[in-house]
Amino acid sequence: MKFFVDTADVADIRALAETGLVDGVTTNPSLIAKSGRKMAEVIAEICALTPGPVSAEVTATEYEQMLAEGRYLRGIASNVAVKVPLTEAGLRTCRALSEEGTLVNVTLCFSPAQALLAAKAGAAFISPFVGRLDDIATDGMQLIADIVKIYRNYPHFKTEVLVASIRHPMHLVEAAKLGAGVATLPPAVIRQLLKHPLTDRGLEAFLADWRKTGQSIL
Ligand code: E4P
């Protein structure tokens, strides 16, 4: 399973990239706005920190403008994946950019039918938002199960399921059990994944016993 980081915070991405756990990055207009920086600059910096795909999202809503924005964004670095919303214009843009060899991430997916359309449009990634479905008392993980099942029925689809809007470690664990190919995780969730009280307690005990020996390894 690939791990992407869901943030436009360059410092956070740099620190996490150093762990070797990061396979890519996703951003969206809200995350770019939160960074308070120029989009092209932030995306270029992020692209230099990871060889993996870095999703940069278009903000136009009409096809021609969306396509122009997508072409501009992919020109920032060779590892940019252009993110488009799951709308008619978005799918048309997805088809056009994919045919030009650009990776396209189709975002804001909330139904299996939408995911099917994205695969038919040649998307490299489909981003179903599990947390936002859970927020409205709908089972986000059922959507992942449905999409994984549908895509497995059609092996010629090359679209990877990129689980998005992850809010806590169990979202990731459940997505992994279902066989989703990618998860995009807020930095805080990646750090939560590491944590277990028995690890902390066990390490403390090992180190206390080790100190009593008076030895050092090096
Ligand atoms: C994915 O690409 C989106 O940026 C993100 O996962 C949305 O998460 P949110 O619902 O927590 O805003």
Any overview of this molecule?
The chain is α/β, with parallel strands linked by helices and 218 residues long. It has a single domain (2-213), classed as Aldolase class I (TIM Barrel, Alpha-Beta Barrel), CATH 3.20.20.70. Helices cover 52% and strands 17% of the residues. Strands 1-2-3-4-5-6-7-8 form an eight-stranded parallel beta barrel, surrounded by seven helices. Strand 7 (160-163), helix 9 and strand 8 form a beta-alpha-beta unit. Helix 1 runs parallel beside helix 3 (39-49). The model has no long low-confidence stretch (mean pLDDT 98).
Q: What integer value in Å does the Rg equal?
A: 19 Å
Strand content: 15-25%
Main sheet makeup:
8 strands, parallel, barrel
Instruction: Please state the structural category.
Output: alpha/beta
DSSP summary: helix tally: 11
Q: Number of domains in the coordinates?
A: 1
Q: What is the end-to-end distance?
A: 36 Å
User: What form results from the Cα inertia axes?
Assistant: globular
Q: Could you name the CATH topology? A: TIM Barrel
The parts where pLDDT drops under 50 for at least 5 residues are none
Average pLDDT rating: 98
